[in-house]
């Protein structure tokens, strides 16, 4: 029966594909997948783009020299995209702005990034309507979400503040890029306590919301939705606009007993150890823990393996070839299994 399941069950085939998707990055090492934020893969005016991130496959979204012509000509860019964490044991997703130089006019941001906190799917809304008995309790939890949300929101529709100006490793900095001193005390080893009531519902407050740095986000449900806007005002002389954001999948852990394959950022949030000391900051709490400290990160060279996607590429050619080969092998095994079962039944 086990032999028949191996070759005939769709569930077994799906499990094999999923297992290979997890094992290959671990064998090949961590690889950052870099996309131009102005490409259609990331930013589309009419449709929300969705990208995926794994523990050993973080994603970089950045402005590149080839997209500078858009800014030089004064073309605007405005879109919404979503980053979703995938993989076994993955809990959520982290975003850290590595560098940003966005324009502002007084207190108003001309260019900005903005997190969308409440953009629920219709399916989730329908599920909530079905549980009428918990309606009152959910209102209490929703009030707790609003009360514990870090920073004042831009408006009342569930959007975070607009982030602009100069940013380095998730921290707002001045023109000289002066970084704050390292933390005096280590961060706690466990996740902040949400309370028994909050943990029972999907509406539970994000325990990391008030702990991350100014230009970093953590979503414990595994989805970060972002609004990106670049003004159509043409660049002035000696003016520059640039952005580089790293998205990393994480899993919850006990900082007192961290597995060898993981690195503890603080507050029970762990990332893949293969991302440590690679020149890119993945920890979101403002101390650049995975790069020793922020001063070291500023001086470090990027040694991470980065796979750059061209503006017209939706996926890597090499990954397409690899998955085609894997698919052919699985189809061959499935055919062999089918022939074996056919011959076996024919004999009986």
Provide a quick synopsis of the model.
The chain has 8 helices and 16 strands. By secondary structure, the protein is an alpha+beta fold.
How would you describe this structure to a colleague?
By secondary structure, the protein is of the alpha+beta class. The chain has one domain (31-314): Spermadhesin, CUB domain (Jelly Rolls, Sandwich), CATH 2.60.120. Helices cover 27% and strands 24% of the residues. The chain is built from eight helices and 16 strands. The chain has helices at residues 2-8, 10-28, 68-72, 122-130, 135-148, 196-199, 294-299, 317-347; strands at 32-36, 49-53, 59-62, 77-85, 92-102, 104-105, 108-109, 112-116, 165-168, 171-172, 216-219, 223-230, 242-252, 262-266, 269-272, 306-308. Strands 1, 3, 5, 9, 10, 11, 13, 14, 15 and 16 form a ten-stranded mixed beta sheet that branches. A four-stranded mixed beta sheet has the order 2-4-12-8, with no helix packed on it. Strands 6-7 form a two-stranded antiparallel ribbon. Strand 6 (104-105) and strand 7 (108-109) form a beta hairpin. Helix 1 (2-8) packs across helix 8 (317-347). The longest helix is centred in the last third of the chain and has 31 residues, at 317-347. The chain is globular and about 85 Å long. The two termini are 16 Å apart.
């Amino acid at each position: 029966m086990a032999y028949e399941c191996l070759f005939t069950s769709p569930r077994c085939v799906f499990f094999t594909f999923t297992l290979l998707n997890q094992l290959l990055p671990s064998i090949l090492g961590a690889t950052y997948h870099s996309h131009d934020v102005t490409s259609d893969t990331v930013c589309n005016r009419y449709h929300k783009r969705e990208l995926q991130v794994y523990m050993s496959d973080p994603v970089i979204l950045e402005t590149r020299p080839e997209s500078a012509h858009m800014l030089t000509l004064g073309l605007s860019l405005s879109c919404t995209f979503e980053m979703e964490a995938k993989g076994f044991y993955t809990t959520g997703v982290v975003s850290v702005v590595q560098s940003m130089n966005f324009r502002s006019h007084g207190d108003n941001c001309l260019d900005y990034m903005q997190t969308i906190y409440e953009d629920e799917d219709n399916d989730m809304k329908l599920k909530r309507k079905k549980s009428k008995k918990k309606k009152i309790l959910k209102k209490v939890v929703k009030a707790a979400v609003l009360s514990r949300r870090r920073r004042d929101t831009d408006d009342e529709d569930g959007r975070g503040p607009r982030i602009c100006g100069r940013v380095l490793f998730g921290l707002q900095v001045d023109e000289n890029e002066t970084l704050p001193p390292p933390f005096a005390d280590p961060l706690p080893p466990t996740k902040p306590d949400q309370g028994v009531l909050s943990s029972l519902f999907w509406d539970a407050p994000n325990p990391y919301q008030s702990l991350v740095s100014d230009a970093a986000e953590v979503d414990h449900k595994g989805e970060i939705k972002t609004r990106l806007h670049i003004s159509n005002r043409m660049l002035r002389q000696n003016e520059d606009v640039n952005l580089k954001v790293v998205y990393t999948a994480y899993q919850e852990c006990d900082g007192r007993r961290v597995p060898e394959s993981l690195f503890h950022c603080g507050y029970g949030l762990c990332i893949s150890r293969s991302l440590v000391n690679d020149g890119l900051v993945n920890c979101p709490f403002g101390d650049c823990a995975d790069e020793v400290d922020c001063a070291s990160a500023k001086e470090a060279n990027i040694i991470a393996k980065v796979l750059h996607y061209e503006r017209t590429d939706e996926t890597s050619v090499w990954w397409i070839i690899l998955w085609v080969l894997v698919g052919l092998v699985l189809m061959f095994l499935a055919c062999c299994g089918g022939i074996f079962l056919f011959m076996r039944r024919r004999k009986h």
